[in-house]
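Give me structure tokens for this 206-residue protein.
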Amino acid sequence: MAEPQQVIAGDTLITVRRIVIATGSWPFILPIPWIADVPHLTNQTVFNLDKILAYLVVIGGGSIYIELTQAHQHLGSDVSVLEMFEIMPKDDPKTVDVVRQQIRDDGVELLEGVEVIRLEKSSGRVRVVFSKDGTEQSIDGGHLLFATGRRRNVDGLELEKQGSSIQTQALMWTPTCAYQIFFYYWRCCWWASVSTCGEISCRRCY
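Here you go.
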């Protein structure tokens, strides 16, 4: 971005009346110690698997990832889920209780209220060291899946030059524009000079 209502593409300065940002999102990886030394899957790479995993450790517990967890368990994998708070935080608590009991009945090891401390790699396996109720514990698995959501792809866009500000979980445009966009639905006030479309618009990407 350049000045308000201006975009730089290569060496070309483009002046426009409206700007739509549709740069999508990317998998968010928690900055856990030694993460760079441990192979891991994300919500993009997990679908490239061509074999059933022996043991999958999942960090995170959003609704989509719980669905992936159950799918792998049904396919024959042993699965453990580590969630810092409670699984499926955006869903109805009574519904979550039903899902929680079902995946446990399916054989999923579900650990809520845990804090992941570090990752270790040993003999081709992945060890996740975590704390629960003040006690340090660990789980060894064959594969690790980060189910910690996605984040907007806005690095390097210099949105502040458009009178925009970035918060932890949301983009807020100034002057004020009363809108809310989720995934592939687009609703925006006609006077906004900067709009968003697609995954970049969600308040908290899955």
